[in-house]
Amino acid sequence: MTDMRSFLGRDILSLKDFERDEFFQVFSVADELRHYAEKRRNGDLLTSKTLLTAFYQPSTRTRLATEAAMHRLGGHVLGFSDAKMTRAGDFYQESIKDTVHMLEYYGDVIAMRHFQQGAPAEAAKWASVPVINCGDGWGEHPTQVLTDLYTTWKHFGTLDGLRVLCVGDMRMRTMHSILYAMSQFDMEGLVVCPPEMSLLPEFKAELDERNVMYREVESVEKCIAEADVIYMEPVVQADYTKSRDEAHDDKGQTPAAYKVTRQLLRDKAKRTSIILHSLPRMDELPPDVDATRHARYWFEAFNGVAMRMALLSLVLGAVE
Ligand code: CP
């Protein structure tokens, strides 16, 4: 462990550059700190630090879990969740560079969500404080997938030897991050998606280069019996390149091939399998599945606070 990179001051932009030991280090810190969230008590680990949240795209979980994590550790929080009310979203269309040059004076770490892939990486070029990618366009969603793998690890006690059925839109940022992360473990991906939402050739090339083991399968029904983890995203999907995608009436419905129902779980799934969903969901995961033993997405959502406590503490140097 002595040659491990320090997290102090580090940007969390992608899971491409996460090494196996680093996943376990983050899990271990999340385990140390989770009692604050479990007991609904606030501590003082980050009392002298300020988190800045810069959210250019809607979010319920990611922003609030990150802010809750900072509050739980006694830190301060400021930021925006509607870029239209900043100069980046009005007449001036202020650049990431100029915006971040301001934000770095106001806080000690920046958590950013943006509709442009690569925007947090661009911010990290100009910020003297760590930048945490909270989802960038279709790009990546590292804090969500760290949460998902932490949830999986807490359930199975290992990540090795597991088959993960990834179902939904493979253009989605969570799918990119989880498949990159699999390069560090003895995991196999079973990838199920509509043809128009399949893994892009350049992304497949990257997975091959990283020796990620995965197979593309036609439907959930054909491979659910093999899965230890069922990892879901909608195929009735918003456009993640937009700052905001409004609801409309003709969103369509999820074809059966990409749904996980109670009946399918009863008839075909491993008894021990768990379902993760980063949420929000559409009709791919009916609410009656919540009452089955497979559902782990609420535990996953809780773990999102513990994971963000771990990441904030690590990049701010409050823990090693
Ligand atoms: N899982 C997730 O990213 O949810 P939000 O869009 O609500 O942050």
Describe the structure.
β3, α4 and β4 form a beta-alpha-beta unit. The mean pLDDT is 97. The protein has 10 helices and 9 strands. The strands form 2 sheets. It has a 5-stranded parallel sheet, with no helix packed on it. It has 320 residues and is α/β, with parallel strands linked by helices. The structure holds phosphoric acid mono(formamide)ester. The site of phosphoric acid mono(formamide)ester (CP) has 8 residues, from α2.
How is the secondary structure organized here?
Blueprint: H1 20-38, E1 50-55, H2 61-72, E2 76-80, H3 96-106, E3 109-114, H4 119-126, E4 131-136, H5 142-156, E5 162-167, H6 173-181, E6 187-192, H7 201-209, E7 213-216, H8 220-223, E8 229-232, H9 262-268, E9 274-277, H10 297-315
Parallel strand pairs: 1-2, 1-3, 3-4, 5-6, 5-8, 6-7, 8-9
Helix pairs in contact: 1-10, 2-10, 3-4, 5-6, 5-10
The structure holds phosphoric acid mono(formamide)ester.
What would the CATH topology of the largest domain be?
Rossmann fold
Q: How would a textbook summarize the main sheet?
A: 5 strands, parallel
Instruction: Tell me which ligands are bound.
Output: phosphoric acid mono(formamide)ester
Q: If you compute it from the alpha carbons, what radius of gyration comes out, rounded to the nearest whole angstrom?
A: 19 Å
Number of domains: 2
CATH class bucket of the largest domain: Alpha Beta
Low-confidence stretches: none
Structural class per helix/strand content? alpha/beta
Instruction: Give the number of DSSP strands.
Output: 9
Strand order of the largest sheet: 7-6-5-8-9
Order of helices and strands: HEHEHEHEHEHEHEHEHEH
